[in-house]
Amino acid sequence: MKTGNLSRRKFIETLGVAGAISVVPWLPAKIVQAKSAARVIVIGGGFGGATCANYLKQYDPTLDVFLIEPNSSFTTCPFSNTVIGGLYNINILSHSYDGLRQQGIKVINDLVSHIDSSTRTIRLKNGDSMKYDRLVVSPGIDFKWELIEGYDEAASHLVPHAWKAGDQTTLLRKQLESMRDGGTVLIATPPKPFRCPPGPYERASLIAHYLKKHKPKSKIIILDANKTFSKQGLFIQGWKELYPGMIEWIPGSDTTEIESIDVKAKILKSTFGQTFKADVINIIPAQKAGAIAHNTDLVNERGWCPVDQRTFESSKQKHIHIIGDASVAGAMPKSGYSANSQAKVCAAAIISSLHDVPMPEPMYSNTCYSLISPDYGISVAAVYRLKNNIISKVSGGPSPKKASKRFRRDESENARDWYRGVVADSFASNADI
Amino acid sequence: MRIYRIVLLILLLVSNLFAHTLFAREVERVKILAGNCSTCHGPQGQGYELIPKIAGLDKDELIKLLEGFKVGKETATIMDRHASGYTTQEIKQLADYFSKME
Hints:
The complex is a heterodimer of chains A (about 425) and B (about 100). By secondary structure, chain A is of the alpha/beta class.
């Protein structure tokens, strides 16, 4: 073929014609829309946000994907109880975003100060504005500080919540280390729903593991805001076996509702005037969706974000999807694994919507491991499908009540493997445990 | 020369269409299903110490295992609780997907 006669200019002209023809109206919409890369901005670099950015890029490498997160690395809440119990150093919980950068995701370390859903624009704290085609908000939780008199962010530097991992985790660990033998540790749990339903009880277990070895005369009181808790039978059985007489669980009632705290004297007061004094207090406050969800009018009257549970698009604002702890996601618990699972479904929904093709029928799952001791693990697992537009459990449940020592040890090994897996799948990085 | 230009134009158009079809990605359903596995078994199905590698396993072997977990014939710590959430058709799709992974 003699193409030599085709000048460079003519070639470009021809190319231009071809380009022009490819956007004429008779072509199917999805082909036209796919022409320029759509931009998806993900706010929040926890399990939900990181996984969503990761899978958006995997499912469609042509997408322009941004992840906006104020911190340069993420410290996981999963496994933070092992740090509090002295099994690991806090460093094992931190994961950088370098793995995601290598996947072609543009990570910006800044805070989003404003979302304008009408112009599909976000504004960063540094003043920059960015447009989006679709926005994913994965802000995690914030605390309802106003519910306990005397407890606020400043007070949490004396009496830690340790429900966002990092300095708070280290602080609680230090307080346990400097506590006298024979001291009392009090854990106050929040009303449901809250992040990581089995978390407070795993925490009590691993603190008991530490105290049993180093300060065996000490006691742990769990002042519960609820009448029942996750994996309750398994926890109570494990405590009897491993830490007899050490952990006292006080179920929720009108008299145990915490009204106020004196963080200096370390005294809690209930609504009916009952007082609790302890050497180390861990208050896990009541929770709501992260601040940005409130500032953008994405929340319901209970402080969580209602979504279309098929796509995770906000019920209140178009083109904004909310995943993870902040969302109302049917039967799924607020866990890192749930956030990871929801993020993948959300990524598929966004890509299908951008390309105007039908979305695959979603499926979701969750697995939460808890360690009662380093070699005694229990789990709760579930698979979910959408039924009448609500995420509903179709299989699963807790570990069997009757099980061998070997079974519990295997589940503790699985817990560590689970951590390696969920970190790799979410952050494209290797966990060093 | 005109004919060459027309040929080139058609070629460009066709390649353009192909490219677009390629980019108009439909996320296959099996990827949604497999997403439920990768959280524990790793993004490449690579497995860890006790949680096994599932990538590259024989398809029939995988079907037998998963169906066994589902009905309680295979010994499991947690896979019985997961596998019973999937239909036989979905188990086949998953087995096919992971058997083709390295």
